[in-house]
Protein backbone atom coordinates (compact mmCIF):
# COMPACT_ATOMS: atom_id res chain seq x y z
CA UNK A 1 0.00 0.00 0.00
CA UNK A 2 1.30 3.45 -0.89
CA UNK A 3 2.02 6.05 1.78
CA UNK A 4 -0.58 8.47 0.45
CA UNK A 5 -3.25 5.75 0.53
CA UNK A 6 -2.29 4.91 4.10
CA UNK A 7 -2.50 8.54 5.17
CA UNK A 8 -5.96 8.90 3.62
CA UNK A 9 -7.29 5.68 5.09
CA UNK A 10 -9.78 5.78 7.93
CA UNK A 11 -7.77 3.16 9.81
CA UNK A 12 -4.71 5.42 9.89
CA UNK A 13 -6.79 8.37 11.09
CA UNK A 14 -8.20 6.21 13.86
CA UNK A 15 -4.64 5.18 14.75
CA UNK A 16 -3.59 8.83 15.02
CA UNK A 17 -6.61 9.58 17.20
CA UNK A 18 -5.71 6.56 19.33
CA UNK A 19 -2.12 7.84 19.73
CA UNK A 20 -3.35 11.32 20.69
CA UNK A 21 -5.76 9.89 23.25
CA UNK A 22 -3.03 7.69 24.74
CA UNK A 23 -0.64 10.68 24.84
CA UNK A 24 -3.15 12.92 26.60
CA UNK A 25 -4.12 10.25 29.10
CA UNK A 26 -0.46 9.39 29.80
CA UNK A 27 0.40 13.07 30.22
CA UNK A 28 -2.47 13.47 32.65
CA UNK A 29 -1.25 10.49 34.67
CA UNK A 30 2.33 11.81 34.70
CA UNK A 31 1.15 15.28 35.76
CA UNK A 32 -0.82 13.76 38.62
CA UNK A 33 2.21 11.73 39.72
CA UNK A 34 4.42 14.85 39.64
CA UNK A 35 1.90 16.94 41.56
CA UNK A 36 1.40 14.21 44.14
CA UNK A 37 5.13 13.66 44.70
CA UNK A 38 5.91 17.38 44.98
CA UNK A 39 3.08 18.24 47.33
CA UNK A 40 3.31 15.17 49.52
CA UNK A 41 7.07 15.63 50.12
CA UNK A 42 6.62 19.33 50.86
CA UNK A 43 3.72 18.69 53.23
CA UNK A 44 5.59 15.93 55.00
CA UNK A 45 8.64 18.20 55.58
CA UNK A 46 6.49 21.09 56.83
CA UNK A 47 4.54 18.93 59.27
CA UNK A 48 7.69 17.30 60.58
CA UNK A 49 9.45 20.66 61.18
CA UNK A 50 6.40 22.18 62.89
CA UNK A 51 6.24 19.20 65.29
CA UNK A 52 9.96 19.51 66.08
CA UNK A 53 9.69 23.22 66.82
CA UNK A 54 6.62 22.69 68.99
CA UNK A 55 8.44 20.15 71.14
CA UNK A 56 11.76 22.01 71.29
CA UNK A 57 10.23 25.36 72.26
CA UNK A 58 9.09 23.97 75.60
CA UNK A 59 12.40 22.43 76.61
CA UNK A 60 14.71 24.17 79.15
CA UNK A 61 17.67 26.07 77.82
CA UNK A 62 20.20 23.60 79.26
CA UNK A 63 18.66 20.74 77.26
CA UNK A 64 17.69 22.73 74.17
CA UNK A 65 21.05 24.17 73.22
CA UNK A 66 22.91 20.81 73.09
CA UNK A 67 20.14 19.39 70.90
CA UNK A 68 20.45 22.34 68.50
CA UNK A 69 24.21 21.85 68.39
CA UNK A 70 23.81 18.20 67.50
CA UNK A 71 21.27 19.14 64.78
CA UNK A 72 23.69 21.55 63.10
CA UNK A 73 26.61 19.15 63.51
CA UNK A 74 24.76 16.39 61.64
CA UNK A 75 23.71 18.82 58.86
CA UNK A 76 26.50 18.10 56.42
CA UNK A 77 24.46 19.35 53.43
CA UNK A 78 23.79 22.65 55.19
CA UNK A 79 20.05 22.71 54.61
CA UNK A 80 18.99 23.20 58.22
CA UNK A 81 18.35 26.61 59.80
CA UNK A 82 18.40 27.16 63.61
CA UNK A 83 18.01 30.38 65.58
CA UNK A 84 17.59 30.88 69.31
CA UNK A 85 16.82 34.40 70.56
CA UNK A 86 16.19 35.87 74.01
CA UNK A 87 13.22 37.92 75.08
CA UNK A 88 14.76 41.10 73.65
CA UNK A 89 15.43 39.47 70.29
CA UNK A 90 19.15 39.13 70.83
CA UNK A 91 20.80 36.20 69.02
CA UNK A 92 21.84 33.45 71.42
CA UNK A 93 22.66 30.50 69.19
CA UNK A 94 22.33 29.13 65.66
CA UNK A 95 23.11 29.99 62.06
CA UNK A 96 20.29 32.56 61.80
CA UNK A 97 21.68 35.96 62.74
CA UNK A 98 18.36 37.79 63.03
CA UNK A 99 14.71 36.93 63.38
CA UNK A 100 13.08 36.30 59.99
CA UNK A 101 9.91 38.20 59.09
CA UNK A 102 7.45 35.41 59.90
CA UNK A 103 4.66 35.13 62.45
CA UNK A 104 5.47 33.08 65.54
CA UNK A 105 2.40 30.84 65.16
CA UNK A 106 4.06 27.43 64.98
CA UNK A 107 3.24 27.02 61.25
CA UNK A 108 5.66 26.85 58.35
CA UNK A 109 6.13 29.81 56.05
CA UNK A 110 8.17 29.90 52.82
CA UNK A 111 10.52 32.88 52.40
CA UNK A 112 13.72 33.72 50.54
CA UNK A 113 16.72 33.80 52.87
CA UNK A 114 20.50 33.88 52.80
CA UNK A 115 22.19 30.47 52.71
CA UNK A 116 23.91 29.30 55.91
CA UNK A 117 27.37 29.82 54.38
CA UNK A 118 26.40 33.35 53.28
CA UNK A 119 27.27 32.79 49.62
CA UNK A 120 23.80 33.24 48.15
CA UNK A 121 20.07 33.07 48.71
CA UNK A 122 17.48 30.34 48.42
CA UNK A 123 13.93 29.43 49.29
CA UNK A 124 13.26 27.82 52.62
CA UNK A 125 10.37 27.35 54.98
CA UNK A 126 10.62 28.51 58.59
CA UNK A 127 8.67 27.81 61.75
CA UNK A 128 8.83 30.20 64.69
CA UNK A 129 7.51 29.76 68.20
CA UNK A 130 7.78 31.65 71.51
CA UNK A 131 9.39 29.98 74.51
CA UNK A 132 8.08 30.03 78.10
CA UNK A 133 11.00 32.25 79.17
CA UNK A 134 10.05 34.90 76.59
CA UNK A 135 12.65 33.85 74.09
CA UNK A 136 12.04 32.74 70.51
CA UNK A 137 12.99 29.56 68.68
CA UNK A 138 13.12 29.59 64.89
CA UNK A 139 13.94 26.52 62.80
CA UNK A 140 13.93 26.16 59.02
CA UNK A 141 14.83 23.88 56.18
CA UNK A 142 15.99 24.61 52.66
CA UNK A 143 13.75 23.67 49.71
CA UNK A 144 16.77 22.62 47.66
CA UNK A 145 16.28 18.88 48.13
CA UNK A 146 12.55 19.10 47.51
CA UNK A 147 13.12 21.10 44.33
CA UNK A 148 15.81 18.64 43.27
CA UNK A 149 13.41 15.73 43.79
CA UNK A 150 10.72 17.51 41.80
CA UNK A 151 13.14 18.17 38.96
CA UNK A 152 14.22 14.50 38.95
CA UNK A 153 10.62 13.32 38.78
CA UNK A 154 9.84 15.84 36.05
CA UNK A 155 12.84 14.72 33.97
CA UNK A 156 11.91 11.07 34.43
CA UNK A 157 8.35 11.74 33.33
CA UNK A 158 9.50 13.80 30.36
CA UNK A 159 11.90 11.04 29.29
CA UNK A 160 9.23 8.37 29.73
CA UNK A 161 6.41 10.13 27.89
CA UNK A 162 8.33 10.30 24.62
CA UNK A 163 8.70 6.52 24.13
CA UNK A 164 5.11 6.07 25.29
CA UNK A 165 3.83 8.38 22.56
CA UNK A 166 6.00 6.72 19.93
CA UNK A 167 4.89 3.26 21.05
CA UNK A 168 1.22 4.27 20.94
CA UNK A 169 1.67 5.73 17.47
CA UNK A 170 3.56 2.64 16.28
CA UNK A 171 0.89 0.29 17.65
CA UNK A 172 -1.81 2.43 16.05
CA UNK A 173 -0.04 2.34 12.67
CA UNK A 174 0.45 -1.44 12.86
CA UNK A 175 -3.22 -1.94 13.73
CA UNK A 176 -4.26 0.39 10.92
CA UNK A 177 -2.05 -1.46 8.44
CA UNK A 178 -3.52 -4.78 9.55
CA UNK A 179 -7.08 -3.49 9.25
CA UNK A 180 -6.33 -1.83 5.91
CA UNK A 181 -4.79 -5.02 4.49
CA UNK A 182 -7.79 -7.01 5.60
CA UNK A 183 -10.27 -4.55 4.12
CA UNK A 184 -8.21 -4.52 0.93
CA UNK A 185 -8.36 -8.34 0.75
CA UNK A 186 -12.13 -8.22 1.29
CA UNK A 187 -12.46 -5.54 -1.39
CA UNK A 188 -10.44 -7.62 -3.90
CA UNK A 189 -12.59 -10.67 -3.15
CA UNK A 190 -15.75 -8.63 -3.72
CA UNK A 191 -14.33 -7.38 -7.03
CA UNK A 192 -13.72 -10.96 -8.14
CA UNK A 193 -17.30 -11.85 -7.21
CA UNK A 194 -18.56 -8.84 -9.20
CA UNK A 195 -16.52 -10.04 -12.18
CA UNK A 196 -18.52 -13.30 -12.14
CA UNK A 197 -16.51 -15.64 -9.91
CA UNK A 198 -19.37 -16.71 -7.66
CA UNK A 199 -17.22 -19.39 -6.03
CA UNK A 200 -15.02 -16.69 -4.46
CA UNK A 201 -15.52 -16.14 -0.73
CA UNK A 202 -14.44 -13.31 1.54
CA UNK A 203 -11.41 -14.13 3.74
CA UNK A 204 -11.87 -14.69 7.46
CA UNK A 205 -9.51 -14.54 10.41
CA UNK A 206 -8.53 -17.45 12.60
CA UNK A 207 -9.59 -15.36 15.60
CA UNK A 208 -13.19 -14.21 14.96
CA UNK A 209 -14.11 -10.57 15.52
CA UNK A 210 -16.88 -8.17 14.57
CA UNK A 211 -15.77 -7.98 10.93
CA UNK A 212 -15.76 -11.79 10.71
CA UNK A 213 -19.44 -11.87 11.62
CA UNK A 214 -20.23 -9.60 8.67
CA UNK A 215 -17.89 -11.58 6.38
CA UNK A 216 -19.55 -14.87 7.34
CA UNK A 217 -22.98 -13.40 6.67
CA UNK A 218 -21.82 -12.20 3.24
CA UNK A 219 -20.33 -15.64 2.51
CA UNK A 220 -23.63 -17.29 3.43
CA UNK A 221 -25.38 -14.83 1.14
CA UNK A 222 -22.96 -15.75 -1.67
CA UNK A 223 -23.66 -19.45 -1.05
CA UNK A 224 -27.38 -18.79 -1.41
CA UNK A 225 -26.83 -16.68 -4.54
CA UNK A 226 -24.69 -19.46 -6.05
CA UNK A 227 -27.38 -22.00 -5.26
CA UNK A 228 -30.07 -19.85 -6.84
CA UNK A 229 -27.96 -19.19 -9.93
CA UNK A 230 -27.26 -22.90 -10.33
CA UNK A 231 -30.94 -23.63 -9.86
CA UNK A 232 -31.81 -21.00 -12.45
CA UNK A 233 -29.28 -22.47 -14.85
CA UNK A 234 -30.72 -25.93 -14.28
CA UNK A 235 -34.23 -24.64 -14.84
CA UNK A 236 -33.12 -23.05 -18.10
CA UNK A 237 -31.59 -26.32 -19.23
CA UNK A 238 -34.74 -28.18 -18.29
CA UNK A 239 -36.92 -25.69 -20.15
CA UNK A 240 -34.76 -26.00 -23.23
CA UNK A 241 -34.89 -29.78 -22.99
CA UNK A 242 -38.65 -29.96 -22.43
CA UNK A 243 -39.49 -27.46 -25.16
CA UNK A 244 -37.11 -28.93 -27.70
CA UNK A 245 -38.99 -32.23 -27.94
CA UNK A 246 -42.51 -30.88 -28.76
CA UNK A 247 -41.13 -28.14 -31.02
CA UNK A 248 -38.97 -30.64 -32.91
CA UNK A 249 -41.93 -32.97 -33.27
CA UNK A 250 -44.07 -30.05 -34.51
CA UNK A 251 -41.43 -29.19 -37.12
CA UNK A 252 -41.18 -32.79 -38.34
CA UNK A 253 -44.96 -33.07 -38.62
CA UNK A 254 -45.14 -29.80 -40.53
CA UNK A 255 -42.54 -31.07 -42.97
CA UNK A 256 -44.53 -34.24 -43.43
CA UNK A 257 -47.76 -32.30 -43.80
CA UNK A 258 -46.27 -30.39 -46.73
CA UNK A 259 -45.77 -33.65 -48.56
CA UNK A 260 -49.08 -35.21 -47.54
CA UNK A 261 -52.47 -34.90 -49.33
CA UNK A 262 -54.95 -32.31 -48.09
CA UNK A 263 -57.08 -34.99 -46.43
CA UNK A 264 -54.36 -35.79 -43.93
CA UNK A 265 -53.35 -32.17 -43.28
CA UNK A 266 -56.04 -31.62 -40.65
CA UNK A 267 -54.96 -34.62 -38.56
CA UNK A 268 -51.32 -33.54 -38.73
CA UNK A 269 -52.24 -29.98 -37.73
CA UNK A 270 -54.15 -31.31 -34.69
CA UNK A 271 -51.11 -33.28 -33.57
CA UNK A 272 -48.94 -30.20 -33.95
CA UNK A 273 -51.41 -28.15 -31.89
CA UNK A 274 -51.24 -30.78 -29.16
CA UNK A 275 -47.45 -30.55 -29.05
CA UNK A 276 -47.57 -26.76 -28.95
CA UNK A 277 -50.20 -26.84 -26.19
CA UNK A 278 -47.90 -29.01 -24.05
CA UNK A 279 -45.06 -26.54 -24.63
CA UNK A 280 -47.28 -23.58 -23.73
CA UNK A 281 -48.51 -25.41 -20.63
CA UNK A 282 -44.92 -25.87 -19.48
CA UNK A 283 -44.06 -22.21 -20.07
CA UNK A 284 -47.23 -21.04 -18.32
CA UNK A 285 -46.50 -23.23 -15.30
CA UNK A 286 -42.95 -21.87 -15.05
CA UNK A 287 -44.20 -18.29 -15.25
CA UNK A 288 -46.81 -19.05 -12.61
CA UNK A 289 -44.16 -20.46 -10.24
CA UNK A 290 -41.96 -17.42 -10.82
CA UNK A 291 -44.86 -15.09 -10.06
CA UNK A 292 -45.65 -16.94 -6.84
CA UNK A 293 -41.99 -16.97 -5.72
CA UNK A 294 -41.71 -13.23 -6.30
CA UNK A 295 -44.17 -12.68 -3.46
CA UNK A 296 -46.51 -10.50 -5.51
CA UNK A 297 -49.47 -12.61 -4.40
CA UNK A 298 -48.99 -11.73 -0.73
CA UNK A 299 -51.01 -8.57 -1.24
CA UNK A 300 -54.11 -10.73 -1.77
CA UNK A 301 -53.89 -12.41 1.65
CA UNK A 302 -57.16 -12.37 3.58
CA UNK A 303 -59.10 -14.42 6.10
CA UNK A 304 -60.41 -17.62 4.51
CA UNK A 305 -61.77 -21.06 5.34
CA UNK A 306 -59.51 -23.93 4.21
CA UNK A 307 -62.32 -26.43 4.77
CA UNK A 308 -64.52 -24.56 2.30
CA UNK A 309 -61.69 -24.55 -0.28
CA UNK A 310 -61.39 -28.32 0.12
CA UNK A 311 -65.15 -28.71 -0.43
CA UNK A 312 -64.93 -26.66 -3.63
CA UNK A 313 -62.00 -28.71 -4.97
CA UNK A 314 -63.77 -31.91 -3.95
CA UNK A 315 -66.90 -30.90 -5.88
CA UNK A 316 -64.81 -29.94 -8.92
CA UNK A 317 -62.95 -33.27 -9.13
CA UNK A 318 -65.82 -35.51 -8.06
CA UNK A 319 -67.06 -36.12 -11.66
CA UNK A 320 -63.54 -36.92 -12.87
CA UNK A 321 -62.99 -39.38 -10.02
CA UNK A 322 -66.35 -41.02 -10.65
CA UNK A 323 -65.60 -41.34 -14.36
CA UNK A 324 -62.43 -43.25 -13.45
CA UNK A 325 -64.34 -45.37 -10.87
CA UNK A 326 -62.31 -43.86 -8.04
CA UNK A 327 -63.78 -43.47 -4.56
CA UNK A 328 -62.91 -39.97 -3.35
CA UNK A 329 -63.68 -38.95 0.23
CA UNK A 330 -63.41 -35.67 2.11
CA UNK A 331 -62.90 -35.47 5.85
CA UNK A 332 -63.16 -31.85 6.91
CA UNK A 333 -64.01 -29.98 10.05
CA UNK A 334 -66.83 -27.47 9.98
CA UNK A 335 -64.41 -24.54 9.67
CA UNK A 336 -60.61 -24.26 9.42
CA UNK A 337 -59.70 -20.54 9.48
CA UNK A 338 -56.47 -19.29 7.91
CA UNK A 339 -54.99 -16.09 6.46
CA UNK A 340 -53.79 -16.46 2.89
CA UNK A 341 -54.57 -16.25 -0.81
CA UNK A 342 -57.62 -18.37 -1.57
CA UNK A 343 -56.79 -18.71 -5.28
CA UNK A 344 -53.23 -19.88 -4.62
CA UNK A 345 -54.24 -22.39 -1.95
CA UNK A 346 -57.00 -23.69 -4.23
CA UNK A 347 -54.43 -24.10 -7.03
CA UNK A 348 -52.03 -26.01 -4.75
CA UNK A 349 -54.82 -28.30 -3.54
CA UNK A 350 -56.00 -28.91 -7.10
CA UNK A 351 -52.49 -29.94 -8.14
CA UNK A 352 -52.34 -32.45 -5.29
CA UNK A 353 -55.81 -33.86 -5.98
CA UNK A 354 -55.17 -33.98 -9.73
CA UNK A 355 -52.00 -35.99 -9.16
CA UNK A 356 -53.80 -38.32 -6.76
CA UNK A 357 -56.57 -39.04 -9.28
CA UNK A 358 -54.05 -39.32 -12.10
CA UNK A 359 -51.92 -41.95 -10.33
CA UNK A 360 -54.69 -43.82 -8.49
CA UNK A 361 -55.57 -47.12 -10.20
CA UNK A 362 -58.93 -48.05 -11.65
CA UNK A 363 -61.37 -48.61 -8.78
CA UNK A 364 -58.84 -46.93 -6.47
CA UNK A 365 -59.28 -44.50 -3.61
CA UNK A 366 -58.38 -40.82 -3.01
CA UNK A 367 -58.81 -39.12 0.34
CA UNK A 368 -58.74 -35.43 1.29
CA UNK A 369 -58.39 -34.55 4.98
CA UNK A 370 -58.35 -31.06 6.51
CA UNK A 371 -58.35 -30.20 10.19
CA UNK A 372 -57.18 -27.62 12.71
CA UNK A 373 -53.72 -28.66 13.87
CA UNK A 374 -51.80 -27.45 16.91
CA UNK A 375 -50.32 -24.47 15.05
CA UNK A 376 -52.66 -24.11 12.09
CA UNK A 377 -54.45 -26.02 9.35
CA UNK A 378 -53.24 -29.49 8.44
CA UNK A 379 -54.19 -30.90 5.06
CA UNK A 380 -53.58 -34.37 3.61
CA UNK A 381 -54.16 -35.74 0.13
CA UNK A 382 -53.55 -39.48 -0.24
CA UNK A 383 -54.11 -42.16 -2.88
CA UNK A 384 -53.47 -45.87 -3.28
CA UNK A 385 -51.49 -45.61 -6.50
CA UNK A 386 -47.92 -46.80 -7.17
CA UNK A 387 -46.51 -44.37 -4.60
CA UNK A 388 -43.02 -42.86 -4.65
CA UNK A 389 -39.88 -44.97 -4.50
CA UNK A 390 -37.45 -44.13 -1.65
CA UNK A 391 -34.84 -43.04 -4.22
CA UNK A 392 -37.26 -40.47 -5.67
CA UNK A 393 -38.53 -38.92 -2.41
CA UNK A 394 -35.97 -36.10 -2.46
CA UNK A 395 -36.45 -35.37 -6.17
CA UNK A 396 -40.20 -35.17 -6.75
CA UNK A 397 -40.47 -31.55 -5.50
CA UNK A 398 -37.85 -30.33 -7.98
CA UNK A 399 -38.96 -28.81 -11.24
CA UNK A 400 -39.34 -31.16 -14.22
CA UNK A 401 -38.47 -34.12 -12.02
CA UNK A 402 -40.82 -37.10 -12.16
CA UNK A 403 -40.69 -40.44 -10.38
CA UNK A 404 -39.52 -43.39 -12.45
CA UNK A 405 -42.83 -45.20 -12.00
CA UNK A 406 -44.84 -42.29 -13.47
CA UNK A 407 -42.82 -41.52 -16.60
CA UNK A 408 -45.56 -42.94 -18.81
CA UNK A 409 -48.27 -40.68 -17.30
CA UNK A 410 -48.73 -37.34 -19.12
CA UNK A 411 -47.41 -34.31 -17.25
CA UNK A 412 -44.63 -31.73 -17.12
CA UNK A 413 -43.26 -32.37 -13.62
CA UNK A 414 -44.19 -28.92 -12.29
CA UNK A 415 -47.32 -29.59 -10.22
CA UNK A 416 -45.61 -30.54 -6.95
CA UNK A 417 -43.04 -27.78 -7.38
CA UNK A 418 -45.82 -25.23 -7.76
CA UNK A 419 -47.72 -26.63 -4.77
CA UNK A 420 -44.59 -26.47 -2.60
CA UNK A 421 -43.90 -22.88 -3.68
CA UNK A 422 -47.45 -21.85 -2.77
CA UNK A 423 -47.09 -23.57 0.61
CA UNK A 424 -43.82 -21.72 1.33
CA UNK A 425 -45.41 -18.38 0.42
CA UNK A 426 -48.02 -19.08 3.10
CA UNK A 427 -45.48 -20.19 5.70
CA UNK A 428 -46.49 -23.84 5.29
CA UNK A 429 -44.49 -26.94 4.44
CA UNK A 430 -45.39 -29.61 1.90
CA UNK A 431 -43.87 -33.03 2.38
CA UNK A 432 -44.36 -36.65 1.50
CA UNK A 433 -45.63 -38.70 4.44
CA UNK A 434 -45.28 -42.43 4.82
CA UNK A 435 -48.09 -44.66 3.70
CA UNK A 436 -48.42 -48.46 3.44
CA UNK A 437 -49.41 -48.02 -0.19
CA UNK A 438 -49.74 -45.14 -2.59
CA UNK A 439 -48.65 -41.60 -1.73
CA UNK A 440 -49.69 -39.18 1.00
CA UNK A 441 -48.85 -35.48 0.83
CA UNK A 442 -49.23 -33.31 3.93
CA UNK A 443 -49.34 -29.51 4.11
CA UNK A 444 -48.93 -28.03 7.60
CA UNK A 445 -47.48 -24.92 9.28
CA UNK A 446 -44.36 -26.63 10.68
CA UNK A 447 -42.53 -29.92 10.13
CA UNK A 448 -42.86 -32.59 12.73
CA UNK A 449 -39.80 -34.17 14.43
CA UNK A 450 -39.67 -36.88 11.79
CA UNK A 451 -40.40 -36.74 8.07
CA UNK A 452 -42.21 -40.07 8.37
CA UNK A 453 -45.80 -39.60 9.39
CA UNK A 454 -48.20 -42.08 10.88
CA UNK A 455 -49.42 -44.59 8.26
CA UNK A 456 -52.71 -43.89 6.63
CA UNK A 457 -54.47 -47.21 6.52
CA UNK A 458 -56.04 -48.33 3.31
CA UNK A 459 -59.73 -48.87 3.52
CA UNK A 460 -61.53 -51.05 1.04
CA UNK A 461 -63.93 -48.88 -0.96
CA UNK A 462 -67.56 -49.64 -0.32
CA UNK A 463 -68.73 -48.43 -3.69
CA UNK A 464 -67.36 -46.88 -6.83
CA UNK A 465 -68.65 -43.38 -6.38
CA UNK A 466 -67.76 -40.10 -4.73
CA UNK A 467 -68.90 -39.22 -1.23
CA UNK A 468 -68.12 -36.76 1.51
CA UNK A 469 -67.61 -37.11 5.23
CA UNK A 470 -68.16 -34.02 7.37
CA UNK A 471 -68.24 -32.05 4.13
Give the helix level as a range of percent.
40-55%
Count of helices? Answer: 9
Shape: rod-shaped
Approximately what portion of the residues adopt beta-strand conformation? 15-25%
Q: Unreliable runs, pLDDT <50, ≥5 residues?
A: 448-471
CATH superfamily of the domain at 300-444: Histidine kinase-like ATPase, C-terminal domain
Strand-pairing-aware structural class = alpha+beta
Task: Offer a quick outline of the entry.
This protein has 471 residues and is an alpha+beta fold.
Description of the structure:
- This protein has helices at residues 3-8, 10-56, 61-74, 144-194, 210-259, 262-293, 306-323, 342-359, 415-425; strands at residues 80-85, 91-94, 108-114, 121-130, 136-142, 302-305, 327-332, 337-340, 365-372, 377-383, 429-433, 440-444.
- Among the domains are: 210-293, Orthogonal Bundle (Helix Hairpins); 300-444, Histidine kinase-like ATPase, C-terminal domain (Heat Shock Protein 90).
- The strands form three sheets. It has a five-stranded antiparallel sheet with strand order 2-1-5-4-3. It has a five-stranded mixed sheet with strand order 7-9-10-12-11.
- The model is unreliable at 448-471 (pLDDT under 50).
- It is of the alpha+beta class and 471 residues long.
- It has nine helices and twelve strands.
- The two termini are 76 Å apart.
Amino acid sequence: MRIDELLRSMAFRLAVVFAIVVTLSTSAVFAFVYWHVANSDMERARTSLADEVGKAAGEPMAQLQPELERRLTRDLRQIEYVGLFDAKGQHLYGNIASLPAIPLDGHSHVIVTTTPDGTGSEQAFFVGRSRPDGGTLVMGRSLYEIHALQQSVLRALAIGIGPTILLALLVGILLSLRATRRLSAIHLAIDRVIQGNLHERLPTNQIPDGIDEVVQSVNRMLDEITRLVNQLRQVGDNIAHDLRTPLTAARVRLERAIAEPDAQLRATAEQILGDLDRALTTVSALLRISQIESGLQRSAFAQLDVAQLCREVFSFYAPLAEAKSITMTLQAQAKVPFVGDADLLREALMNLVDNAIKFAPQDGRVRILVENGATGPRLEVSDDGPGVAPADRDKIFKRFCRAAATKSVPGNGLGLSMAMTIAEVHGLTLRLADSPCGACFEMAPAPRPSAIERPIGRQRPRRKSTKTANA
